[in-house]
Design goal:
This protein is of the alpha/beta class. The chain is 40% helix and 17% strand.
C-alpha cells in the first residue's frame, strides 16, 4: 500500500539544481520531517543531469522523490510520483509504466484541470495562484480561481507565490497542500520554512 500524497512539495528548477549547496539544502529540508516531497525538475537539464539530480535528492530520507515530466528518470530513480504537463505523456500512459506512482498534472485554468482529471491525473498542481517571478506576465488564478478547481474533487496542490502567511487562505479554500520553489530553497532556514507550511495542513 503506497503512502499518502505529500502535503508539501519542494520543487527545483535549473538554478537550484546547479547550486553548490544543493545537498545541504535538501538535507535541511529533510529535517522538517512530515509529509514532504521534493521534485526533481529542470526543463533544460539533459536526461543524465536530471537523473543525477533525482538521485541526489532521493538520498535524503524521509523525503519522497517526485520527478517532473521525465518518466524514464522517474523509473530509473525509483520515484514515488511524477508530475506531468500538457505536453507530457497522458496520465493513463504513465500509469502503465508504474502502478504505484502518484501521478499529477500541472494546470493553469479550470478547463485544463477538467481535462487533466478526465485523462486520469490523481492530483492537480494548480497555479500560479499569486504573482510569481517564475511565471512573469502570467495571469494568477487567485484564491477564487483555485476554489473552482478544488470543486472538481481531486486533491489540489497550490503553487505560485505561496508563503506561510498565505497558506491559511489556501487551506481554507480547500487545497490539499502547497508547493514552492523560492519560499523553501531560498529560505535562510529551509526546514523551518517547511515546518511553517506543513503546520497549516497538519
Amino acid at each position: 500500500m503506497r503512502a499518502p500524497l505529500p502535503r508539501l512539495h519542494a520543487i527545483t528548477d535549473e538554478r537550484i539544481a546547479r547550486r553548490h549547496d544543493l545537498d545541504r539544502l535538501a538535507a535541511d529540508l529533510a529535517g522538517a520531517g512530515g509529509s514532504l516531497a521534493i521534485h526533481a525538475r529542470g526543463r533544460s537539464l539533459s536526461g543524465l543531469e536530471h537523473f543525477h539530480l533525482a538521485i541526489r535528492l532521493s538520498a535524503h530520507a524521509p523525503i519522497r522523490l517526485f520527478v517532473n515530466d521525465r518518466l524514464d528518470v522517474a523509473l530509473a530513480a525509483r520515484a514515488a510520483g511524477v508530475q506531468l504537463t500538457g505536453n507530457s505523456l497522458p496520465p493513463e500512459a504513465a500509469r502503465r509504466m508504474n502502478a504505484d506512482w502518484w501521478i499529477g498534472r500541472s494546470v493553469h485554468s479550470l478547463r485544463e484541470a477538467q481535462s487533466a482529471q478526465a485523462e486520469g491525473a490523481e492530483y492537480l498542481l494548480a497555479g500560479p495562484v499569486f504573482e510569481t517571478p517564475t511565471h512573469p506576465g502570467g495571469e494568477p488564478l487567485g484564491v477564487e480561481g483555485l476554489r473552482d478547481i478544488v470543486r472538481l474533487g481531486s486533491p489540489v496542490i497550490a503553487i505560485g507565490g505561496v508563503t506561510a502567511l498565505r497558506a491559511g487562505d489556501l487551506h481554507r479554500a480547500g487545497v490539499y497542500g502547497v508547493a514552492a520553489i523560492r519560499a523553501l530553497w531560498d529560505a535562510p532556514r529551509p526546514a523551518a520554512a517547511a515546518r511553517d507550511l506543513l503546520e497549516v495542513f497538519a
